[in-house]
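quick one if you have a minute, typing this from the bus. below you get a single protein, a line of residues and a line of whole numbers that encode the local backbone shape. could you go over both lines and see whether the tokens make sense for that sequence. anything you notice is useful, everything is just below.
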Amino acid sequence: MRTVVSWPHAALRTPAADVPEITDEVRAIWEDMVDVMEAMPGVGLAAVQLGVPLRLAVVDASTARGQVVRMANPEVLHASIEFREHDEASPCLLGVSAVVKRPRAVTVRFLNEAGETEERDFVGLWATSVQHQIDHLAGKMYFDRLTKLKRDMLLKKAAKLAR
């Protein structure tokens, strides 16, 4: 199984490259991503978290699991004006989390497993996870959405835990 890269790995700050088409190699990366996400356990994973510089993400915020959405080149087309707070974390920065406020619902366009362009609405935890993964693909971490003071405190705590 692939391993998650740790903060401050350069892959986490580098915007990922678009995926021109869905190939067997892309499908294999998605499967590895699902395996890692399930092992965490988590509700989403971006390819850059595994050191793969491609705009690939997987999300499964279902309670029963097994409803993974595989996305290439995801982009938010519309975001609700209503926000939702959620305690977010990342396997790239273990032991810390922070409450992040994001739009409660988003409409996202992406290439699906069949290589077709799909638009889908995500709400609640699904929306939070999709936005979290899209941030990763742009070279951003969830803590970038915090105030400087909160971000500095979180990174200091993470560094202390890592020692």
In short: The helical segments are 24-39, 125-137, 148-162.
